[in-house]
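Hey L., structure's done. Input below.
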Amino acid sequence: MISGLEHLSCEERLRDLGLFSLDKRRLQRDLIAAFHYLKGAFKKDGDGLFSEPCCNRTRGNGFNLKKV
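Output:
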């Protein structure tokens, strides 16, 4: 416990300290993992899940889910 914050609720303590709740930290972690997965950081685990980009386009990313 941090001195001077004992009387505040958990949400107020987090806000005063500039921290996110556990739910928001989990969501952030999941979004970062999804981003890395889509960009190829986990290529071994995801081989065959996405089709390769079809061409160089200026709009969109070119990745499509494959139908199984």
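Residues 32 and 43 are 15 Å apart (CA to CA). The mean pLDDT is 76.

-- N.
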